[in-house]
TrEMBL record, chain B:
Pfam families: Fer4_7. The keyword Ion transport does not apply. This is 4Fe-4S binding protein. Residues 1-29 form the 4Fe-4S ferredoxin-type domain. The keyword Cytoplasm does not apply. Keywords: Iron, Iron-sulfur, Metal-binding.
């Protein structure tokens, strides 16, 4: 029998007593972090896979200008890797941003984090960005501040970042080799000149690496985002992961390239392929040996509001905020109570050592399952799921792999009044599409599933399962895995043939 | 001697912050839906910088023109997208 690990040291390679999501036996969790860092990230939805089920974030779009060009971005819209393309954010002044943050924080007490992520580069807008941070740290000291940057202007702003108590910074680093960089960044604006090609990429990389080192030297947590661009930096990202880890970055988030012709980006127009789910997972797994990997990123908009899987931005447009009355003193009291309750729940979960599953035969193969989840529970109707969370169950336990976005095919009562299907033809093709994105999964767990999708899922070899509604996701996935194991279907082919 | 901003402008503010003459302003909606350059203040950066700063940072091709109407950043010059492709996607136009 294994003893639970109770020291604060890094657990052995195969994991230890950590029970939080994304930890367990997976090498990519946050279990290795010392307590003071874990305390910083435990309520940050972008840094902790476990936290993202409960805590919300928001971005304010106060930073329109940019100082570089990326081939996956078209400035006519927002950056396609930060935002859903084609939808222009409502640009805010710092004063409007403060008003919005206070309104959202009062309305959504689970909101812990305010980030500035664009739509340009926050540090190319230092006046607007730091004015927002300065005002917020005075008026809402209970909100954590973060900033994302391409890194070009990072070194000159590190002291200011430290001064405003911003303890989370994300740098997008797509390469450490200028020749690779020249294929991603056509130009940068540097010291009053536009600099093209390899020289521009060289300067950008130099500034990113310098800024990263300066931040980690000051104890500021750094997450590195990388866009996976097949044929350009796919193999190179393993090197990037090693280099940024050595400089003290604590989390690496490899995101898939978004490149569609209608977005008008260089990659979109030139037909640059996007990576497949398999490519992304393979690369994340390859990097995970060196580095903690983030797998729950939703590539959200520069003005997103709410939990990571949702966007409540529409509820907080400036015209709506103007008529809201906010008593922030009272809101802070309520917020603290809500945060404490969630943290207590998370700590309780963490305190319970999750034993390795016992009754799974050794050598059983892993199974991928899709979950229509909400707040960490199997809580969403199949047709209402905006995304599926993909989990892998194996004899070692359950681990989170990724999320896959869907298109809603069932608008429910709101959209169709008495529950009729909106349009037979349209709903049909969307349903087929949603089933296609579940490729590779053998089970889909949801709170409910209709008759038509049930039949189609079964026909596609994916078992629909509504028997674990409202149960915690990981427990439900393990329970289903055990049920499958009990049928003997998980044993190697040769063995099952012998049985047959 | 002054540069001008065209309707291609996306109001990203990048030029506003780098103009050494504070020549770039946001007009009333009726006048223009995008930033404009004050002809009185613009020096095309002569004496301050080797290149006009608005044109050096502007991410949008065809958004800055000189007095002759010539693009300082012609189609394809910033993105590297070939002219044929720009035409195919309706993203190309000739200088005034």
């Amino acid at each position: 029998m294994e003893l639970p690990v109770i020291s604060n040291n890094a657990p052995a390679a195969e994991g230890g007593g950590c029970s939080s999501s994304g930890c367990g036996t997976a090498p990519d969790g946050l279990a290795h972090l010392p307590d003071h860092i874990r305390a910083k990230v435990q309520d940050h939805p972008c840094y902790s896979e476990q936290a993202h089920h409960y805590f919300a974030r928001m971005h304010v779009a106060v930073a329109p200008a940019c100082n570089i060009q990326c081939n996956y971005c078209n400035r006519k819209y927002d950056c396609s890797n930060e935002s859903r393309p084609g939808v222009v954010s409502e640009l805010l002044t710092p004063d409007q941003a403060i008003k919005k943050v206070l309104a959202v924080a009062a309305e959504i007490p689970q909101m812990t984090v305010l980030g500035i992520a664009g739509p340009g580069d926050p540090l190319a807008n230092p006046g607007r960005t730091f004015d927002t941070f300065r005002q917020l740290s005075e008026k809402a000291p209970d909100i954590k501040l973060c900033v994302s940057t391409n890194g070009l202007s990072l070194p000159e702003h590190v002291d200011e970042i430290a001064k405003h108590n911003i303890d989370h910074v994300t740098i997008t680093i797509n390469c450490v080799d200028p020749e690779v960089g020249a294929k991603i960044y056509p130009w940068i604006y540097w010291q009053n000149k536009r600099i093209f090609g390899i020289e521009g990429a060289r300067i950008l990389i130099e500034q990113q690496q310098k800024g990263l080192q300066m931040l980690t030297d000051r104890g500021i947590l750094v997450k590195v985002n990388s866009v996976l661009i097949p044929g350009i930096n796919d193999q190179h990202l393993k090197e990037v992961s090693k280099v940024v880890k050595a400089k003290g970055a604590f989390l690496h988030n490899v995101m898939p390239l978004i490149a569609e012709a209608e977005h008008g980006t260089y990659y979109g127009i030139m037909g640059q392929p996007e990576p497949t789910q398999e490519m992304l997972q393979e690369l994340q797994d390859a990097c995970a040996g060196d580095m903690a990997m983030m797998r729950h990123c939703r590539q959200c908009r520069a003005d997103a509001v709410g939990l990571l899987g949702e966007d409540r931005g529409d509820e907080f447009t400036m015209d709506k905020i103007d008529v809201m009355e906010v008593d922030y003193e009272a809101a802070m009291v309520r917020r603290k109570a809500v945060h404490d309750a969630i943290i207590e729940k998370l700590e309780a979960e963490r305190g319970v050592a999750k034993p390795k599953p016992t009754d799974i035969p050794e050598g059983s193969r892993p199974v991928l399952m899709a979950v229509a989840g909400k707040n960490g529970l199997v809580a969403e109707h199949f047709g209402h799921a905006r995304e599926f969370l993909i989990y892998e169950a194996s004899p070692a336990g359950v681990r989170f792999i990724s999320h896959r976005k869907t298109e809603l095919y069932c608008g429910g009562m709101d959209a169709c009044g008495d529950g009729d299907v909106v349009e037979a033809g349209a709903s049909e093709s969307l349903l087929d599409r949603n089933i296609r994105i579940l490729e590779g999964c053998e089970v889909v767990l949801c709170s409910k599933v209709g008759y038509e999708p049930w039949a189609k899922l079964e026909a596609a070899g994916i078992a629909p399962n509504g028997e674990h509604a409202m149960e915690p996701i990981e427990e439900a996935v393990m329970a289903v895995y055990k049920e499958i194991a009990a049928t003997g279907k998980l044993l190697p082919q040769a063995d099952s043939l012998k049985v047959a | 001697m002054a540069l001008q901003i065209t309707e291609s402008c996306v109001n990203c503010w990048a030029c506003v912050d780098v103009c050494p003459n504070d020549a770039i302003y946001q007009p009333d909606r009726d006048e223009a839906p995008h930033f404009l350059i004050s002809a009185d203040k613009c020096t095309e950066c002569l004496g301050d910088h080797a290149d006009p700063q608005c044109a050096a940072i502007c991410p949008i091709e065809m958004a800055i023109v000189n007095e002759l109407g010539e693009f300082l950043n012609p189609p394809g010059s910033l993105t590297g997208i070939p002219i044929e492709k720009l035409k195919e996607f309706g993203l190309w136009r000739e200088a005034a």
